[in-house]
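Support reply, case 0932

Customer input (verbatim):
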Amino acid sequence: MDRDQVETVSLRWLRRLVIAAFLLITVLPFWYMLVLSVRPIERLLLDPGSLWVPLGELTVATYTEVLKAAEDGGQGFLTFIRNSGLVALAATLLTLLVAIPGAYAVSRLRFFGRRQVNALFLAVYLFPSIVIAIPLFVIFTRAGLRGSLFGLVLVYISQTLPVSVYMLKNYFETIPISLEESAAIDGAGRFGIIRRISLPLAAPSIMAVALYDFMIAWNEFLFALLFLVDKPDRWTVSLGLSLLADGVEVPKTVLMAGSVILTLPIVILFFASERLLTEGLTAGAEKG
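Our regenerated output:
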């Protein structure tokens, strides 16, 4: 084998080893969490390091306890899932409702301060969330929105809207303007062009932004704790999981079952939309 062949084969195997290492690092913790969630606590105490569960030891009692209502002796995660789902879906839909026309306007229309608006979209993320947490707490308390899921939705929209507009703007700029000009010549108005030309072509990017917004709203903890701490019936999944983690009397198997319930919806959504997510995140990178 000459030098070129040796380097090609070496790089091929090195790439495979690196991919296998990353898979091990990412999959092993989730696998161990899943194993712990389906093991009886007494078997876990006897062999805590086992990565396999014999069929005779499999149990779903931990999930039953996690999902059962609190008044029935469970942890009430069904309520938490419902709250998180409502908040995440509402935040995602409302963010897209504002971000899509906003991104289109920035990418296609010419107006005073356009360059400055582009910079402001990302300048929002120069400030950590904790900086605006207290002012938002005071404002929402005076407005009577503290403790409500609607108030939490508004907070999540303010957190995800700037980057959503920025991502969609980059994608809209990759759509040939000649397509829109042709539609305008044929008599289509601005809204007709957006609905028939721009939105169908921007579908991958819109899906990527929707998944991003949903994941942020589903997993967020700080603002959920700040606004809902005194309303247990309105807690989200992340708050419910923190309750399990702080409870000394809660078995670790039950805690792991709650962790799986928190993680699994995002994992399923990601893999179901992985192709669209990848296309949407990378599209417009050159031009944007």
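We compared this against your earlier run and they match. Two observations from our side: Residues 284-288 have pLDDT under 50 and may be disordered. Residues 3-37 form the longest helix (35 residues). Please reopen the case if you see a mismatch on your end.
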